[in-house]
Amino acid sequence: MPAANDIRKGQVIKFNGEPHLVMETQHRTPGNLRAFVQIKMRNLRYGKALDQRFASTDTIEVLPTEKKTLEFSYADRDSFAFMDPESFETIELSSTLIGENKNYLTANGKVDVLFVDEKPLTIELPSSVNLKITESSDGVKGDTASNVQKPAVLETGLVIQVPLFIKEGEIVRVSTADGSYMGRA
pLDDT digit string (tens) for 134-181? Predict the structure, then answer.
């Protein structure tokens, strides 16, 4: 097992029996005290971030990781099926792992999945996705004094605010970070 000095950003370590993603490391040697490593990390199961201090000689278990790009196939009751485009193997992920990301999944949409010990732990969406508007009311003529917006329902069920000129059936680009309208696709 590597020492705390050897831990780098992006690695996944085991801390308190849980996998944690290392977001930042700092090696410090304060005055006449012993050196230590300050690690900022995020729990991959629960998403909670924390700072932890390790002695520079402490050993830390680094978990083997693999990131795969998978294509979304279909959604079942409480699971989502993804296909590996290289091996054509189907991988099912639970709805708890997917969470609110389900609002941005469309058929054949690509996502990055982080596997730790060959178990899927996190899903990473692209920064924006193109989605079709299935339901939207018409804008009122003359209601253009300022940046007026109206609600629109997307093909995944997500409701976003769009400008008045966007019509039902159009494809729009949506930010996956905050669910905001970015423009026409």
Answer: 998 876 666 566 778 889 999 989 999 998 888 899 999 999 989 899
**Calpha distance 40→50 (Å, rounded):** 6
- Residue 135: domain span: 128-184
pTM above 0.90, yes or no: no
Q: What are phi and psi of 83, to 5 degrees?
A: -115, 135
What CATH number did the domain enclosing 24 receive? 2.30.30.30
Query: How do residues 32-90 score in pLDDT, each as one tens digit?
Result: 888 899 999 988 888 789 999 999 889 999 998 888 999 999 988 888 999 999 988 99
Shared domain for 92 and 49, answered yes or no, is no
Query: By the 8 A CB rule, do 174 and 131 touch?
Result: yes
**For the chain, how many residues are written?**
185
Distance CA 156, CA 134 (A): 9
Q: How far apart are CA 92 and CA 94, in angstroms?
A: 7
138 shares a domain with 117: no
| Closest among 167, 156, 68 to 110, alpha carbons compared | 68
Cβ atoms of residues 142 and 128 within 8 Å = no
Give the span between the Cα atoms of 106 and 73, in whole angstroms: 8
